[in-house]
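Course exercise 7: structure representation. Students receive a sequence record and must write out the corresponding structure in token form. The form below is the worked example handed out in class, using STAS domain-containing protein (103 residues). Read each field label carefully; the graders check that inputs and outputs are placed in the correct fields and that the protein name is recorded exactly as given.

STUDENT ID: A-19
EXERCISE PROTEIN: STAS domain-containing protein
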Amino acid sequence: MPAEATWERDSGGGLLLCGDWRLRPLDQVLRRGAGSLLRQRWEYLSFTKVTALDSATLAFVLDWQSAQRALGSPAELRDPPQTLLDLAKLYGLTQLWQENIHA
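STUDENT ANSWER:
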């Protein structure tokens, strides 16, 4: 079973997602710390420790990017899993992300 959704600040000023970021665990983590995740300025969002995701993760990423752009952040995505990229493609969001994805 994947670990619950958690997050941490990494040494480069980015937001590092950890564990299971599907709907139920994501809902729980947002209830605990949505303010920190969406209202703080982060240099990037890293997926290197994500063990599971779904379309709820995609919705979170879109909200996060919107909030970050409003704060003047480049809203860069680092090492997004292929599953997330496939979901973005399915929903026609590839163009929106292309310049902000770094593997």
